[in-house]
Amino acid sequence: LGAKTMFATHYHELSALEGAIEGVHNYSISAKKQGGTLVFLRKIVPGSADDSYGIEVAKLAGVPDNVIAKAKTYLNELESGKSELAVEKKVETDQISLADVGSDEVAKRLRALDINSVTPLEALNILSELQQKARG
Length: 136
Known about the structure:
about 140 residues, two-stranded antiparallel ribbon
């Protein structure tokens, strides 16, 4: 098939690529709030998520209440634009096509990579390294 998939959480800028790049489609896991509790409906639906569920997922994972409260404070500041952390970012749509890379080394490294055995940080570092090689 030659299909390529990118999976990301909390990287909302990727949602803007649908419509900007041919063939890019967003899908998300359906969820709803019932009485202040988040319920994942275990259903994949077209489109990006209608909300960020990071704080709710942190609660489900047992993150301490004081950390949850601080996260809510930061989120409210960011959403209101009052935080110094609020920064407008431009989404760049220039992409490197793996077909155009012409690097057997990059393709070989990707084929050999066991994605189930690397941490998210290791995966990000590997991706950065491969991107540098692809760019020459």
